[in-house]
Design brief:
Number of strands: 2
Low-confidence stretches: none
CATH class: Mainly Alpha
CATH superfamily: SP0561-like
Strand content: 5-15%
CATH architecture: Orthogonal Bundle
Number of helices: 5
Largest sheet: 2 strands, parallel
Mean pLDDT: 95
Strand order of the largest sheet: 1-2
Length: 75
């Protein structure tokens, strides 16, 4: 089964679908956005795309890291 994500899906939905998203986010520098409490509140409206802008993380770096971890990243 392919693991498909979108950069515009909420972090809450991504984590509930694929638990390993938390580890990948931590690797990318999303500190503070990966604890369960934050995911259950802010994560419902926060997306990887919005988080990238907020944390000044290059979107290509995010895409590459998820693809390295066997995800298919769609627009």
């Amino acid at each position: 089964m392919d693991k498909i994500i979108s950069l515009t899906d909420s972090i809450y939905n991504l984590v509930n679908k694929y638990e390993e998203v938390i580890e990948i986010m931590e690797t990318l520098g999303f500190e503070g956005m990966t604890n369960k409490k934050t995911i259950n509140t802010v994560g419902r409206i926060m997306t990887l795309e919005k988080g990238a802008k907020f944390k000044s993380i290059d979107i290509k770096k995010i895409r590459d890291e998820f693809e390295k971890n066997n995800f298919i990243v769609k627009e």
